[in-house]
């Protein structure tokens, strides 16, 4: 019987089954002491985000793990949520209101925040809907947002705990050089200001001596606009060229301010002239020099990058405009000695890509040293493991050299810093989770909150435990029902924390992973997760990172629409080797589509030929080895061997190996060999049971990777056999679904290496026969005679026992077993490890004409091989092409050379 349509239609299946899963609460989780917990917290996507290939890869990996562990009988929670993404969201909403001719300052803080919440209400769930299209099986009833009330309470609590931590507190405010974005007008951490290589200039400027204006010290700089804030020129005390000049006074050009020559070992004698300008308010190294030598700190810029009143005649000019005017003025005064091309690396805002400005500013910081120590130990002791291992060294190197974290941001959207000030007594020490009503020192009600908000990552680093309702510290005035709810959440946290694994990208190891480990150790006194899986970056087929500007972006939603979500998931995973970047082209997704179709077509064929009554047969009788034929023993052994390998790969986070192992088994072993081998006797009860069992268990095994097509087929099989108890899979009387079926159990007693080897000998023999037939272009309908000389008596017996199978699959009229290894007349031959194989060609074709045809093929192959050798000897090709392309070309060359040797041998035999 069969009710499967001729073609698989993912558009019909995917929405139907996702709605089914949600409607029946199959993603939901609860505390269940009888089960082992498994938990992943989703890296919360920004509410401004839309699904891209990086998201698709990251979330497919997480979903595979969740579905796998759910089927293994664990209480598998995938905690979902979104991040408020302070700078990114504010930028989007500012662009939105700009279309109305408004700036945020026109609305004021309160009204602008209202507009952001409105925007979030309208667009903030877009990426959640897109993740559902991908098949993400998150427990959506638990969805969190980093700005919801409960989570905001956790952020304040964390701030207060660090601020008041004994003995001196870990949060402080201070004037420091920070990364400043003039476009976003906010401070950025070092991790938020990635450096990019630029081709710029090195400008050599003359600073005249006060007592002799005709003599100069020449300094080299890449940022001449900051010279207006110079308060010294520094040289190295070991530099003999300048020893006599230390302590002398110079006149700062254009500003005419008197500055000194100072000596410090920080100065690099090889840079420029060995004399450097010192601008303490606009350079981190100069800041250190300024503090050490008690120099004046002069800020010459407004927050928006325009020059301020300290810049004299250049006031209100943009910093880069001022640079050009300053250079012209210096040139006119004869104070610009020369300009040289110079390569440099400059920080850029990670959101708007503006070149950042090192800027002296009062900001809030977290002392990271004390937080880093236990987080370092947790990794060193193996409590947290990175996959691949090489990321452990990267993590430890950063943690052991960690700098204090600038956590304040000068934007409006985000968690306001929970610090209040008193206008009457100037008390600045009011830190509180709850909003105070009066000054704790003088009692005045004229108080106000700090204007800055916290870095977005300050809320994100609490994600593994704040999502469960931490900190669970509430006043006794609260109602009993709320305390009961809190108690339930605390049970959740105790059950699911530490979480099991974090799946993330390498670029946020420092932003997020390291900080979550520190937060977990500080606030929970335990690690936040046991494993960290770092996947590679998605690139185009040429190895370039995907970006809109390059026009090489592949939209995952377009792929889902064209090929289906399963095709996207399988294709991505099958080419994602652990720790390696992913090289994508649209054509890659054809493999996943073709595989989904293969599964569908094979299942359709099986259902067409399945007799439900046969499946009721006592399986215990069949599954004794002595009762099974070679082909059935082989396919069962192979399935459980493959399942064992898949389990091993999933446990080791080798998802591509699991996917490709399942692909190879189903396509090349189950379909190409097993179904073909039993096709002539498919109604045989033994074949029926084995065929059904392998398909049903395979669907369960492929389900974590390809959930939709596996559910569609499994449901149809289940409906076909609905009257039978053993095919009804239910959990707590809930609706049947493959996703709550148990993961297939490995039956070790059925795995038989000897059987697998014997079957492989037969299949290799058939393959050689097919190759010989193909080489002389004989149609499959032509029945042939083959002679075979087995290399051992055991192999001869094996071939004799399976002669009917060989004749059937190789389409032979006659199979002759030779006792002596003498090549029969008028044959062409092949040799493998088991036997010598001879195809009788007498009367099948004109051997002379065939020989000429083969010579033509040989000539053509020699040309192709020569071209391949030239390509693989081309240094430019080897340098530019991705490794996998080069490896593929080498593999192709080897195959061509093997084919050439085979044709040359055949040509000789036809003489």
In short:
With 911 residues, the chain is an alpha/beta fold. It is built from 30 helices and 29 strands.
Number of strands: 29
- Main sheet specs: 4 strands, antiparallel
Extract low-pLDDT stretches.
Answer: 724-734
The average pLDDT score comes to 91
- Class derived from helix and strand content: alpha/beta
Q: How far apart are the termini?
A: 54 Å
Q: If helices are DSSP runs of H or I spanning 4 or more residues, what is the number of helices?
A: 30
Strand content: 15-25%
The radius of gyration is 36 Å
Shape call? globular
Helix content: 40-55%
Placed side by side, the strands forming the largest sheet appear as 6-5-14-16
Please give a structural write-up:
By secondary structure, this protein is α/β, with parallel strands linked by helices. Helices cover 44% and strands 16% of the residues. The chain is built from 30 helices and 29 strands. It has a four-stranded antiparallel sheet with strand order 6-5-14-16. A hairpin with a 4-residue loop joins strand 5 (171-181) and strand 6 (186-188). Helix 17 (565-574) crosses helix 18 (589-609) and helix 21 runs parallel beside helix 23. Mean pLDDT is 91; it is low at 724-734.
């Amino acid at each position: 019987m069969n009710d499967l349509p001729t073609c698989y239609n993912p558009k019909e299946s995917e929405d139907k089954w996702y709605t089914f899963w949600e409607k029946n609460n199959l993603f939901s989780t609860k505390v269940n002491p009888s089960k082992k917990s498994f938990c992943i917290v989703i890296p919360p996507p920004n509410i401004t985000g839309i699904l891209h290939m990086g998201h698709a890869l990251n979330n497919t990996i997480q979903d595979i793990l969740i579905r796998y562990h759910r089927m293994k009988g664990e209480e598998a929670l995938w905690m979902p949520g979104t991040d408020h993404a302070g700078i990114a969201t504010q930028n989007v909403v500012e662009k939105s209101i700009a279309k109305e001719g408004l700036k945020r300052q026109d609305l004021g803080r309160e009204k602008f925040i209202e507009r952001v919440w409105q925007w979030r209400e309208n667009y903030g769930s877009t990426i959640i809907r897109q993740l559902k299209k991908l098949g993400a099986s998150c427990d959506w009833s638990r969805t969190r947002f980093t700005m919801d009330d409960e989570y905001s309470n956790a952020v304040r609590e964390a701030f207060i705990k660090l601020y008041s931590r004994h003995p001196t507190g870990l949060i402080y405010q201070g004037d420091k050089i920070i990364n400043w974005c003039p476009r976003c007008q906010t401070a950025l951490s070092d991790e938020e200001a990635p450096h990019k290589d630029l081709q710029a200039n090195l400008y050599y400027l003359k600073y005249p001596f006060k007592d002799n204006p005709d003599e100069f010290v020449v300094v080299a700089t890449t940022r001449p606009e900051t010279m207006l804030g110079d308060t010294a020129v520094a040289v190295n005390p070991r530099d003999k060229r300048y020893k006599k000049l230390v302590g002398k006074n110079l006149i700062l050009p254009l500003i005419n301010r008197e500055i000194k020559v100072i000596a410090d070992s920080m100065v690099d004698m090889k840079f420029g002239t060995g004399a450097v300008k010192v601008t303490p308010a606009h350079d981190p190294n100069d800041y250190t020099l300024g503090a050490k030598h008690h120099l004046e700190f002069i800020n010459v810029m407004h927050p928006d990058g325009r020059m301020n009143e300290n810049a004299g005649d250049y006031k209100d000019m943009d910093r880069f405009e001022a640079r050009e005017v300053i250079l012209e003025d210096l040139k006119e005064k004869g104070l610009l000695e020369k300009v040289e091309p110079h390569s440099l690396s400059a920080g850029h805002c990670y959101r708007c890509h503006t070149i950042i400005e090192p800027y002296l500013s009062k900001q809030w910081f977290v002392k990271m040293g004390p937080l880093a120590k236990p987080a370092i130990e947790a990794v060193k002791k193996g409590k947290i493991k990175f996959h691949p291992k090489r990321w452990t060294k990267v993590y430890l190197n950063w943690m052991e050299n960690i700098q204090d974290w600038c956590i304040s941001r000068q934007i409006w959207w985000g968690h306001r810093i929970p610090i209040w000030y008193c206008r009457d007594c100037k008390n600045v020490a009011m830190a509180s989770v709850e909003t105070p009503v009066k000054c704790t020192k003088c009692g005045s009600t004229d108080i106000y909150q700090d204007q800055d908000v916290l870095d977005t990552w300050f809320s994100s680093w609490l994600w593994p435990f704040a999502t469960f309702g931490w900190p669970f510290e509430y006043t006794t005035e609260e109602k009993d029902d709320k305390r009961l709810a809190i108690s339930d959440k605390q049970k959740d946290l105790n059950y699911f924390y530490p979480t099991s694994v974090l799946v993330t990208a390498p670029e946020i190891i420092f932003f997020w992973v390291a900080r979550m480990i520190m937060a977990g150790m500080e606030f929970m006194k335990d690690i936040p997760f046991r494993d960290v899986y770092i996947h590679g970056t998605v690139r185009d087929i040429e190895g370039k990172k995907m970006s809109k500007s390059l026009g090489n972006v592949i939209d995952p939603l377009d792929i889902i629409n064209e090929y289906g979500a399963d095709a996207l998931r399988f294709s991505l995973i099958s080419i994602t080797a652990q720790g390696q970047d992913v090289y994508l082209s649209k054509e890659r997704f054809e493999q996943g589509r073709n595989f989904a179709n293969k599964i569908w077509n094979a299942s359709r064929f099986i259902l067409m030929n399945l007799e439900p009554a046969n499946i009721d047969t006592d399986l215990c009788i069949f599954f004794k080895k002595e009762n099974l034929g070679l082909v059935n023993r082989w396919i069962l052994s192979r399935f459980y061997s493959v399942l064992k390998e898949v389990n091993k790969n999933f446990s080791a986070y080798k998802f591509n190996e699991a996917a490709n192992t399942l692909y190879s088994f189903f396509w090349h072993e189950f379909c190409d060999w097993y179904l073909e081998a039993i096709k002539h006797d498919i109604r045989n009860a033994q074949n029926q049971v084995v065929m059904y069992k392998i398909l049903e268990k395979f669907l369960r095994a492929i389900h974590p990777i390809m959930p939709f097509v596996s559910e569609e087929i499994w449901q149809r099989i289940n409906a076909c056999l609905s009257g039978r108890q053993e095919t009804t899979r239910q959990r707590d009387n809930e609706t049947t679904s493959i996703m709550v079926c148990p993961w297939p159990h490995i039956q070790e007693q059925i795995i038989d290496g000897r059987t697998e080897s014997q079957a492989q000998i037969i299949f290799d023999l058939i393959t050689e026969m097919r190759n010989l037939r193909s080489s002389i272009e004989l149609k499959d309908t032509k029945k042939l005679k083959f002679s075979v000389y087995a290399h051992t008596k055991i192999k001869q017996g094996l071939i004799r026992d399976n002669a009917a199978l060989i004749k059937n699959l190789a389409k032979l009229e006659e199979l002759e077993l030779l006792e002596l290894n003498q090549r029969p007349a008028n044959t062409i031959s092949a040799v493998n490890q088991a036997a010598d194989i001879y195809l009788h060609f007498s009367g099948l074709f004109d051997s002379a004409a065939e020989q000429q045809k083969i010579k033509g093929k040989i000539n053509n192959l020699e040309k192709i091989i020569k071209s391949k050798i030239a390509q693989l000897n081309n240094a430019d090709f080897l340098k530019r092409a991705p490794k996998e392309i080069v490896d593929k070309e080498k593999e192709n060359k080897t195959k061509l050379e093997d084919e050439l040797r085979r044709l040359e041998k055949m040509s000789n035999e036809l003489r």
